[in-house]
């Protein structure tokens, strides 16, 4: 699919809801964090400003979105609104998140982790366009048969659903790219949110999530089996 047309801010007759949760690197909620919300592309035009409560949560906000129909049928028009959040809190470095996606009739949950002020750096996070809307380069194919080598990792005696999986942040051939240990359920959730529109029928979403889980567990199993040989 060719790159689509970005939705204009005037083409937002529907509404979605948003809640932001702010916490520290120690997973403690941050109270009274100030969050300025603007349209991505117009970061200096604040449309909402809210504070977090004792649990680190904002109130549930209602914001404009494109029509739900844009996400239910193939279209060249962006089916979601994009928002930017600027978060400040005493004792923490300011953080900016841009490109947050909001769909018609859906509740978006945005988690934010703040660095302590001693970190000395402004954290600017950019959420890339949804994979169903933007045309990304094709994935690099991996060899069907891989060489067996010592990994230094523990190999269990049987296949299990893992609590954590290793995600390689780069192409399969890039040995310099970093590996991250991600909770299995968080990985599935994040992959699903980038490959599925939240407005789709529940049965369609379930089918896609099961496909993602099957692919991931197949990779875990084949790696387990390869390392057992």
UniProtKB/TrEMBL annotation:
Keywords of this entry: Carboxypeptidase, Hydrolase, Protease
MF GO annotations: carboxypeptidase activity
Domain of life: Bacteria
Name of the protein: Carboxypeptidase regulatory-like domain-containing protein
């Amino acid at each position: 699919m060719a790159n689509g047309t970005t939705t204009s801010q005037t083409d937002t007759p529907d509404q979605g809801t948003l809640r932001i949760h702010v916490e520290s690197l120690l997973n403690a909620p941050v109270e009274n964090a100030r969050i300025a919300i603007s349209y991505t592309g117009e970061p200096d035009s604040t449309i909402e400003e809210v504070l977090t409560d004792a649990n680190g949560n904002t109130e549930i906000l209602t914001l404009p979105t494109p029509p739900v129909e844009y996400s239910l049928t193939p279209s060249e028009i962006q089916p979601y609104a994009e928002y930017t959040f600027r978060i400040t809190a005493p004792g923490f470095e300011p953080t900016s998140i841009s490109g947050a996606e909001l769909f018609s009739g859906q509740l978006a949950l945005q988690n934010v982790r703040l660095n302590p002020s001693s970190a000395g750096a402004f954290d600017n996070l950019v959420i890339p366009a949804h994979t169903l809307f933007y045309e990304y380069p094709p994935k690099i194919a991996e060899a069907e048969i891989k060489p067996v080598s010592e990994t230094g990792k523990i190999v269990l005696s049987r296949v299990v659903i893992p609590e954590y999986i290793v995600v390689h942040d780069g192409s399969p051939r890039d040995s310099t790219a970093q590996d991250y240990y991600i909770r299995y359920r968080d990985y599935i959730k994040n992959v699903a949110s980038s490959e599925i529109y939240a407005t789709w029928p529940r049965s369609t979403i379930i089918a896609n999530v099961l496909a993602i889980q099957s692919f991931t567990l197949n990779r875990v199993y084949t790696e387990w089996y390869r390392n057992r040989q």
